[in-house]
Amino acid sequence: MAERVEDLNLPNAVVTRIIKECLPDGINVSKEARTAIARATSIYILFITSAANNVATQASRKTISANDVFKALEETEFSSFVKPIQEALEEFKKLQLDKKQKAAGKKGEDIDKSSEDKPNDETMEVEEEEQDDEDEQEQ
Predict the structure, then answer these.
(1) Is the pLDDT of residue 19 over 60?
(2) Which domain holds residue 70?
(3) How far apart are the first and last CA of the chain?
(4) How far is CA 15 from CA 4, 10, 21, 96, 130, in A?
(5) Longest Cα pair distance anywhere in the chain, in angstroms?
(6) In terms of DSSP H, where are the helices of 9-65?
(7) 71: part of which helix (H) or strand (E)?
(8) Domain end (from 56, 77, 98)
(9) How far is the CA of 64 from the CAs of 58, 85, 95, in angstroms?
(10) Are residues 10 and 69 in the same domain?
(11) Please, are residues 15 and 37 in contact by the beta-carbon 8 Å criterion?
(12) Percentage above 90 pLDDT, the chain
């Protein structure tokens, strides 16, 4: 658990970046406003986490799932957030899967390249048989 209330706040740089992405160009936000937004965001996260924990506890689980968060949003009258968050979660999962597949593909290419350089068990057996045949012919 956090020792100080300030430990619960999101990093100012992250909050500032998110605010700038959400507002049109040329709009300035005071330091006090950024601090207020950061605190409100932290409190909101704690509130939804607590509600999601209650949902998980009622289902006799110790792990909070995404579905628990969605149900908590509905129970706390933030149901309008459910659909956009579900869409964002699906997009995130898709991006993660794409990254994983690209990494696996790259590893597969690396393995293919390295297997060309190194003989595998089958080629070693064939080479040994050929060597044995050559040895027999010489005798």
Answers:
(1) yes
(2) 1-77
(3) 81
(4) 19, 7, 10, 24, 69
(5) 94
(6) 12-22, 31-58
(7) helix 66-75
(8) 77
(9) 11, 16, 22
(10) yes
(11) yes
(12) 55
